[in-house]
Amino acid sequence: MSIRFTKIKSFLSTLSICIFLSVFLTPGIKAEEKKEEPKFKLEFHGFVNYEMSYDTRQVVAGREGNIMLFPAQEILDADGNDINDNPSLTYFALTSRIWSSIHGPDILGAKSYAHVEGDFMGSAPDKFNHIRLRHAFIRLDWEKAQIIAGQYWHPMFVTSCFPGVITFGASVPYHVLSRAPQLRLTYTHESISFSGTVMTHSDFPATGPVGSGSVYIRNSNLPEVFGQTIYTSSRFAAGTTIGYMWLQPKSVTNSGFKTDETMGSLMGNLFFKFDLPSLSIKTQGIYGENMTHLIMLGGYGETDFIDQNRQIRGYTGIRTMSLWTDIETKGDKWRYGIFGGYSENLGSEKEITGDHWGRGTNIAYIYRVAPRVRLIYDNLSFNFEIIYDVAAYGTPDAKFSFDQTNEVSNIRTMISMKYDF
What we know:
- The chain is mainly beta.
- It has 2 domains: about 1-35; about 35-420, Beta Barrel (Porin), CATH 2.40.160.10.
- It is built from 2 helices and 21 strands.
- A 16-stranded antiparallel beta barrel has the order 1-5-6-7-8-9-10-11-12-13-14-16-17-19-20-21.
- β13 (about 265-275) and β14 form a beta hairpin.
């Protein structure tokens, strides 16, 4: 009897263990089988870029000479020698870059995405080799609409149509270079997209009486406002951008009176891209006034007194135009390209009788021709570019037009080794 009871007890113990496992462990196994995908996908990318450049004369440039604008003007010493006729050699890795892409869950019916990117160019001339924020934005993508909120490319920098040059800066000052904190809404219908953007300034600010800074657009209480339309097909793209910016250069006059006079600037572009089987052709025309925050020629200045007793002045913009074309082959190993650009000072509508602020306001025109070649091995590329620049310097009149100019030229030889990851 006791033996039979012992067997029954052993059977019940075994059964209870089986029930325990079936109740508690089986759901765990099912849960493991039905484990949800992670809500966020994080990716890191970037590149290391080592560059060497040699200039035949001194140049106007930023970040240790990396961001080249145009040749420095002729300055003669007592013996008649040009002080700026002096070559320069530079090695740098400032443009090396890293970024993180974050793909998140659907929000409000849209795919969510975030992007953070930095390089080592620094945010000021004395901060090179310091890490700086390039992009930091949130993006929501619906079927036909998109919202971008954060720091991203200025709308005048068209990501589908910019020069593919080797030197940093996308061929400034012939093409724009600017990023800004913004809110952008884009709607796409078939092959056409429409976007509207409002933004202020950060590390690409306007200039004025107290130097470069965001204070001028902040004090205007108005953002930059831009609209853009782009048509895209498999082999062709075309579009236009137009916008307006308000600045308040001064809050107080030289005689101590309050002023809220603003400087308004209209600017825009027209661009085309031809994507052929073995060749890419891009071209763009840019026009505007006071485009210094876009690293272009131009600026603005003070006109006659609106109120002479209080020394309140009006403002007028210095207008500029730029045309460029970029062509590059599409070889898997060897790629050849050439960039050509021209920019001109078109002067101001009104006479500038007071102070003025800008970039290259003593230049009538500039032009550039830059052939290049790339040799690509998987993630590693060897790049070579020759940049021939000419700037015509002169003394402008009250409307910033030029009668006589003196051309100076520079040849930059650029070699780089770039590793993408």
